[in-house]
Automatic annotation (TrEMBL):
EC numbers on record: 1.1.1.3
Name used for this protein in its record: Homoserine dehydrogenase
Residues where L-homoserine binds: 190
Chain residues that bind NADPH: 105
Family, as annotated: Belongs to the homoserine dehydrogenase family.
Main enzyme class: oxidoreductase
The keyword Ribosomal protein belongs to this UniProt entry's keyword annotation: no
MF GO annotations: homoserine dehydrogenase activity; NADP binding
Source organism (scientific name): Geoalkalibacter ferrihydriticus DSM 17813
């Protein structure tokens, strides 16, 4: 029987999951491939820690290049994460004529063009289903099943840590810091959760999705990124009263020759399917010109779900190798040379609805002052709420706007914050009412 050999770099949580799939489902994979896909070498700096799996010591090495440069290995699975040495290892594997599978969204978001161009030149694949939304097969859906569509938008809840925190804050009325600490205790959040809670992880994933959906290069640094650390239980309470849930949403839209690329807390109608995505789950909603709206929902992280996606890529590459022909699907769904360079729309050009919250002293005339400043900046008020409860000596004023320009809203809030009666800095959350 034909045998394809693979090597693994990185034996952390996901790497351990990949080994488990190789061990548990080897017979199943063999039946489905009509060939044997075998893991023959594993590299990690730590090869002594017990990871709960039985491994032949002969498989293990601390030298990644011993895996990359092994002439018998055709597939390299990179699971060390980060920018370096992952970039160096991946480029060396490509130079050696190896097909590469990675779950490294940060690497692809920052160095994807370089890596994909090198792979295309060498005629090898770079597969990355596990880099976005874990076990949800969104990458293959975009590149294959839905590839005849022009995508108008891609929306995603792409970080399980943030979704877990916001879901619990909404359900239980607890504050951000309390839920974050509990999430860390339960293993849903890292000891240093910065990349998750400040939206960086989500932006990495959005950069990949935008490139796939719209066929354009997108500079990760041009994606507007705002995290959830400033969201309070009070905001979630008010959101419900107005008929919304708050989610950390990745938003990619194409229109008028520009791309919208932004990640921020977003109020979405309770009736929208994304509003029901709770806990650590992820979801991606695509809008195609022929297929219409499609939503994929499932586990976006974790050992088993992510390992499943990695092994799906490994089996797809194995099928290409068995065919001994040209690659069936380009890594980004189209040749690197035909990808466009569409500009990213600046946030200042955004027009939409806004939720505004200002903490003020309860004095006559304060509402008139705030309304006057908003009016001076062409911001029309759709509704307003002033609860009686006080927070730190201030009363919150909550305002929902009609369509307003982002630049105008920011300028108005900066002016409002200078008012003598304002005791708590103003806060805004963008509202998406017209989600596909």
């Amino acid at each position: 029987m034909k045998e394809i050999k693979a090597g693994l770099i990185g034996l952390g949580t996901i790497g351990t999951g990949v080994v488990k799939v190789f061990q548990k489902n080897a017979e199943l994979m063999e039946k489905r491939l009509g060939a044997r896909l075998r893991l023959v070498k594993i590299a990690d700096l730590d090869i002594t820690t017990d990871r709960g799996i039985s491994l032949d010591p002969a498989l293990l090495t601390t030298d990644a290049y011993a895996v990359i440069r092994d002439p018998d290995i055709k597939i390299i699975i990179e699971l060390i994460g980060g920018y370096e040495p992952a970039r160096t290892f991946v480029l060396e594997a490509i130079a050696q004529g190896k097909h590469v599978i990675t779950a490294n969204k940060a690497l692809l978001a920052l160095h994807g063009d370089e890596i994909l161009a090198a792979a295309e030149k060498q005629g090898v694949s770079v597969m990355f289903e596990a880099a976005v939304a874990g076990g949800i097969p969104v990458i293959s859906a975009i590149k294959e099943s839905l590839c005849a569509n022009r995508f108008r938008s891609v929306l995603g809840i792409l970080n399980g840590t943030c979704n877990y925190i916001l879901s619990r804050m909404s359900r239980e009325g607890q504050e951000f810091e309390t839920v974050l600490k509990d999430a860390q205790t339960q293993g849903y959040a890292e000891a240093d959760p910065t990349f998750d809670i400040e939206g960086v992880d989500t932006s990495h994933k959005l950069a990949i999705l935008i490139s796939l959906c719209f066929g354009t290069r997108v500079d990760f640094k041009s994606i507007y990124t705002e995290g959830i650390s400033n969201i309070s239980a009070l905001d979630l309470q008010f959101a419900k009263q107005f008929g919304y849930e708050i989610k950390l949403l990745a938003i990619g839209k194409l229109g008028y020759g520009k791309v919208e690329a932004r990640v921020h807390p977003t109020m979405i109608p309770i009736s929208h399917p994304l509003a029901d995505v709770g806990g650590v789950f992820n979801a991606v909603r695509l809008q195609g010109d022929f297929v219409g709206p499609v939503m994929l929902h499932g586990q976006g992280a974790g050992m088993d779900a992510t390992a499943s996606a990695v092994m799906g890529d490994a089996m797809a590459v194995t099928r290409d190798l068995l065919r001994k022909g040209p690659l069936r699907t380009p890594s980004m769904g189209c040749a690197v040379a035909v990808r466009a360079d569409l500009p990213v729309r600046p946030m200042e050009e955004l027009v939409g609805h806004y939720y505004l919250r200002v903490g003020v002293l309860d004095r006559p005339g304060v509402l008139a002052q705030i309304a006057g400043i908003l009016g001076n900046h062409d911001i029309s008020i759709a509704s307003m709420m002033q609860p009686e409860r006080q927070i730190g000596g201030a009363v919150p004023i909550v305002i929902m706007t009609h369509d307003a320009g982002e630049a105008n809203v920011r300028a108005a809030l900066a002016e409002i914050d200078q008012l003598e009666l304002v005791r708590e800095k103003s806060h805004l959350i963008r509202i998406e009412n017209d989600l596909a």
